[in-house]
Amino acid sequence: MTAADLMRAVVPVFPPSESNLIREGYLTGERSPGELRCAPSEFFMLFDVNNDGLISFKEYIFFVTLLSIPESSFSVAFKMFDIDNSGEIDEEEFKKVMALMRAHNRQGAVHKDGLRTGFKVSGCVENGGLVDYFFGSDGTKRLQYDSFMQFMTNLQDEILRLEFAHYDYKSRGTLLAKDFALSMVASADFGHLDKLLGRVEELDKDMHLRDMQITFEEFNNFAELRKQLRPFSLALFSFGKVNGLLTKEDFQRAASQVCNIPLSDNVVDIIFHVFDINRDGHLCSKEFVRVLHRRERDIAHPTGTGIMGLLSCFFSRSPDSFERLVS
């Protein structure tokens, strides 16, 4: 698959509004009115060992597993990998813990033996371009803490960039308000999706919002807010209980003061258009938080307690018992 395919496999997305696509798949003989296109990813090509410009299925499983780790837990993940507490990770430590983490990831667990329905991956899932990148082709390099943290940050940033490029169908460097709204509601559950999509469609009727453009910086700031959803949602609900109604100014102040994230007037206008269910100028905090929480949960692909359960398990065990767990 391409890097854009990987993003679409991990992040719930709708076809961009200007593509004229209503879905990604088509029946045999059905006319396809457009196609999805996305700029190539230099980042993912660092792991393209056979130079075919594609991500192999083995590498896909690796990336999906790593992407299920929240940014707030990167440091915990490194300590999990560093079984002997040396401050570095060697190839064998990395492979052992990756295998364990894959078992706690929905897609990884399904393909834990390198098998895919009707298809068997050649070679071990633990061997691939990512392992070579970290440890060298001979496996003798060791991975330092700073290098791991930077890689994990770069991986998350690249997925976000690809998501933005997906919706930036005409490569303007900005998103239409409608596409930004689609990116927000793509994770909504089916019971609420129709209502939210109806609100997105109504953007075309609003003269102020219809031609509004969202920059990557604004898109990125909103993504940063999702990472701090717990304190932000607590601020929203607490304010709502005290004051009853939540205005745009209240929303921006909560993002700025609680999460230190600036949200532009344009972004807030679009959020309130979609999630002001009663159209009274006040946000439906519960619906907004539910959609954002669902997105973060779905990207983690949990099985049982999921990756976060495994990370919690790490802290509840002694180093010796955790080493027995991965051995």
UniProtKB/TrEMBL annotation:
It comes from the Eukaryota. Its main location: mitochondrion. It is found in: Mitochondrion inner membrane; Mitochondrion intermembrane space. It comes from Linum tenue. This is EF-hand domain-containing protein. The keyword Cytoplasm does not apply. One of its GO terms (cellular component) is uniplex complex. Keywords: Calcium, Membrane, Mitochondrion, Mitochondrion inner membrane, Repeat, Transit peptide. GO terms for molecular function: calcium ion binding. PANTHER family: CALCIUM UPTAKE PROTEIN, MITOCHONDRIAL (PTHR12294:SF23), EF HAND DOMAIN FAMILY A1,A2-RELATED (PTHR12294). Gene3D superfamilies: EF-hand. GO terms for biological process: calcium import into the mitochondrion; mitochondrial calcium ion homeostasis. SMART domains: EFh. The keyword Transit peptide applies. SUPFAM superfamilies: EF-hand. Residues 69-104, 263-298 form the EF-hand domain.
